[in-house]
Amino acid sequence: MFIYSALRSCWLTFLHLFHRTETVQYPEQKPYLAPRYRGRIVLTRDPDGAERCVSCHLCAAVCPCDCIDLQKTAEPDQWIPEYFRINFSRCIFCGFCEEACPTSAIQLIPDFEMSEFSRQNLVYEKENLLIAGTGKVPDYNFYRVAGVRGTGANAQPVDPRGLLP
Amino acid sequence: MMLLGTIAQAVVILLGIVLLSALLTWVERRLLGFWQDRLGPNRVGWQGTLQIVADMIKIFFKQDWTPPFSDRVIFIAAPVIVMGTVLLGFAVIPFAPAIGIAPDLNIGLLFFLGCTSLSVYGVVLAGWASNSKFSLLGGMRAAAQMISYEVFMGLALIGVVMLTGSFDLTRIVTAQKHLWFVVPQFLGFVLFIIAGIAEAHRLPFDLPEGENELGAGFHTEYSSMKFGMFFVGEYAGIILISAITVILYFGGWGGPLLPPFVWFALKTGAFIVFFILLRAALPRPRYDQLMSYGWKLMLPVSIVNLAVTGAVMLTGV
Q1: Is the residue at B26 inside a domain?
Q2: DSSP string computed for B178-242
Q3: Mean pLDDT of B106-135
Q4: Contact with chain B for residue A10, Cβ under 8 A
Q5: Which domain holds residue B227?
Q6: Which domains does chain A have, with CATH numbers?
Q7: Which of B38, B280, B281 comes nearest A23 by C-beta?
Q8: At A87, is the pLDDT very low, low, confident or very high (cuts 50, 70, 90)?
Q9: Size of interface A-B (CB pairs under 8 A)
Q10: What ipTM does this complex have?
């Protein structure tokens, strides 16, 4: 009985020679990454080109592995961060920071190719994180709807108790 | 001049065998890859053909560590014994008419059996000299396995010897001009190939190594080229068993159209691939199962095979 089963499994294994291989030849053949893939973290800008981040620290607070560190600038009435640092050797790419961000500034993008030879090089500073565009949220501008700046296009602040959009 | 020619031939054959064994490490990984729907090593050189060069460079530059708790002399001698005896076994292989180191030796088959039996000493001594529990268990398994499989390996071969009336491998090949011995000696062939797998301690009978319970078995403590010699010795053993199987049961170099050596290489290659296929397909039996198959099933069957062959020859069919 076991001879039959041994021969049968030999034959079935041999047939695998003619099956398609599952291997993805990685550096030449890139895998498909879904648009919502949680990879490298970036800081985006609003449609006007200004930094979205208002240094509210919610991302740093929600981060389960404490890999985000930032500091609000000392300039009065300026809410952009003075420095913004993500230690990617700690980051677990959970995406909580993206969920917590009130201004859609911090976003995870479909890119995982960030290997380094030195661990220290995995600490990304603000200039490494900041990108020129708006990322996944193309037309959202926090200041236009929050009404913090009482100038120009934003003269009428949003009524927070209004139900209409 | 004659002597020089023989020596040159021997050197070429032995070097060829060693290089082929090294190449087999790549062939095996490639084939295992395909059989598991992977690609295997295909990066170094065209389709990974230079992988063995990379592996050799790596293994030569590894730390060659002799454990301080080991029995130094035996520890160093063991891989030499394994590789040496396997290479000695090739001395009697007739690769083609009049090609081989001593293909016409009148005790060729006995010499082959002797060499494969000696190689177990290398394994047992490696297990003993390493002075570690895993190695010792591996070595003990090797000894028990070799003894029990050696017995019916010899008995399975006797059928061929009876039909030929000679231990001379060249004569055995020429006796198969009209009919391969696999037909009248099919049972003997099956028994021999099972014993051969156990003899080369290949999967599914690689219990001396048994990496999931013994680390790496008898060569747990070996590193660098001393391990490399066990490794190459194992693959040379595969080639040896495949070659002997072809010679005894599949007509050796005989075949139409193609030159004799090509036939021999093709048949041997097919058996090497079969050995690798076994590794890809079959799980390892438990140790007591291995022993009970050997003594309670294979040995009686081989004796029956012997008796039937003798009876048929006596009645003169």
Answers
A1: no
A2: SS-TTTTTHHHHHHHHHHHHHHTT-TTS-TTT-HHHHTTGGGTT--HHHHHHHHHHHHHHHHHHH
A3: 87
A4: yes
A5: 66-315
A6: 33-146 (3.30.70.3270)
A7: B38
A8: very high
A9: 35
A10: 0.79
